[in-house]
Automatic annotation (TrEMBL):
Family annotation (InterPro entries): Amino_oxidase, FAD/NAD-bd_sf, Flavin_amine_oxidase, Flavin_MAO
Domain Amine oxidase: 12-444
EC number, UniProt record: 1.4.3.4
Oxidoreductase found in the keyword field: yes
Annotated protein name in UniProt: Monoamine oxidase
One Gene Ontology MF term: monoamine oxidase activity
Pfam families found in the cross-reference section: Amino_oxidase (PF01593)
Keywords noted in UniProt: Oxidoreductase
Amino acid sequence: MKTDVVVVGAGLSGLVAARRLLQAGQGVCVVEARDRVGGRTLNADIGDGQVVEIGGQFTGPGQDAIQRVAGEVGVATFATHTSGTHLMELRGRTRRWSGANPRIGPAASLSYLRAQRELDRMAREVDPRTPWQAARAADWDGTTLDAWMRQRMRSESARTLLTMAVRAVWSIEPDEVSLLHILTCINAGHSLERLVRTRDGAQQDRFVGGSQRIAEELARTMPDQLRLGHPVRRIVQDGHHVVVRADRLEVQADRVIVAVPPMVCRDIEFEPAMPVGRQQLLARTPQGTTLKYLAVYDEPYWRAAGLSGQVASDRGPVGAAFDNSPPGGRPGILLGFVVGRHARSLLTLPVAEREQQVLDCFARWFGDRALSPREVLVGSWTEEVWTKGCYAGFHPPGLWTSFGACLRQPHGRVHWAGSETATRWIGFMDGAVTAGERAADEVLTCQAQGVLR
Ligand SMILES: Cc1cc2nc3c(=O)[nH]c(=O)nc-3n(C[C@H](O)[C@H](O)[C@H](O)COP(=O)(O)OP(=O)(O)OC[C@H]3O[C@@H](n4cnc5c(N)ncnc54)[C@H](O)[C@@H]3O)c2cc1C
């Protein structure tokens, strides 16, 4: 089969790239390993025509790209449930709180807010398009966020709180990530405060009908271009064209856009081989670890007790919880994120034991009724062969300054998309959209100029 452009991966990034290319009159073939579209967005049916999200779900102010695309395909947003009192488990104490910030004592609060402000200020010195060019890039990429926290934050409670925030936002531990990477992501997501917050922040809204609907609606506009269930194994190029070899499918094209997560991209064989910088980049980009649990109850019974369903915990295994009920409030759904170190430890247990530990957390916060959900759904993304971890890939120390310049550099006729290659909202659905559009524009420019880079 022959076409102008092959897109590998029918997640949001690949689908948006394909849409832009089709709009520009290009022939397109989207080759997807799974038998569904949406990648890291996935809806689960909970009956009565309602769904809940197993993958990415939240959106908020400043995420204009995903909201624009959602609007264009007729998917609206609704507010995440936040009314009521939130809970925080911190260093052996459970606190109830409401308003902007949890009360953790004046010294700890001050230490946390100072650190947040300092990180936001440092982040403004980092251009997310070229983090390796920041004046202090070498220093910041030579250390971890944890090392910086130990140096700058005297309060242990404040450090624990920031660790909880980092786990919740990026599903990683502060001692494994480059300080420069965190600053890049903070700038790309406006500010740490915006990344962390629900109201006025990145968790403010959800998509009606579930986020996967956006991918499904995009896919509906290109039925003839989609090839589902064909894992791409090999991409071979010469001076004239590129051939994409997938299971039971071979497509020849002028150019290819690869829109898959970094750890999965490592498994595709490239001929000629990728340049050394990009090989190193992929080999050293791990992905976060997340198990996302959704416990379904007849009603959101915790609301009657004045609780919002929102919890942050350093004890775990659930590190963050939300009321994830559908817009109408029935059934009641508790969402529990098990992330970072807690997720890696939970993943070593049998599935039934994992679930029990999660329900035990819910019972600790919302009473024994939590132990009897009518259904429990789980997204175990590290165990998904076509994802291998989430929410996204991240950079340990040294990576941005050594190999960052290779992140978006095309390899001959092969271009790179996916939320990890974004320069705004890196690792988010919004980033997936802008990365897909950027890669499509690169291809269109090359096609127009007849360029082989
Ligand atoms: C549990 C969880 C919670 C999240 N929470 C949020 C959130 O609240 N808000 C937010 O904005 N983002 C969130 N994210 C992140 C967000 O979902 C992702 O950044 C975004 O969806 C990534 O889109 P993508 O197209 O770049 O990659 P993907 O969605 O991973 O798409 C890649 C596609 O490529 C396919 N593929 C892989 N390998 C091959 C191959 N060899 N051949 C063919 N196809 C292949 C995959 O099957 C997949 O369909 C979350 C993610 C998860 C998993």
